[in-house]
């Protein structure tokens, strides 16, 4: 039943373009049935004002509900939003990091990459730490993220967060290039099939 409600809302969204009705079903399926994917979709709707008014705080609330139901993309979106300055006093770097670490532990490559970026640069509430940046870049690269593999290549080349190793720097450079080319090919095929 939970997936059926979600699929109905997806149909109303994609085929009928009835966004208000889709939003109502996503919200109801989240609130009443605790279906994480519907929470995530309703959070997306609130972030952009689709099917009703825009409300980033309600969007965050629904991402958090989706994350509680282990819908990992919702954890990712909640974490990114909590790290952003647009939330004002709701900005919470510690919670953002916790949510993305959970998503990364569930093999969500974009979450691992995001964390590595925070540690590479150092952002509000998360100090620069190249050893941790290396750790999360490695996780993301192992999950197939080309940009993380590129970061690893540079870290090995410069000895940042890890000992210098020209051989490994080259190995990760090649891996990044290979993954990037695969990504471009997938995008090209998607465009051709539209």
UniProtKB/TrEMBL annotation:
Question: What are the GO cellular component annotations?
Answer: mitochondrial intermembrane space
Cited Gene3D superfamilies: Tetratricopeptide repeat domain
Q: Which Pfam families match?
A: Sel1
InterPro entries assigned: HcpB-like (IPR040239), Sel1-like (IPR006597), TPR-like_helical_dom_sf (IPR011990)
Q: Which UniProt keywords apply?
A: Coiled coil, Repeat
Quote the protein name from its UniProt record.
Answer: Beta-lactamase
Coiled coil: which residue ranges?
162-193
* Similarity annotation: Belongs to the hcp beta-lactamase family.
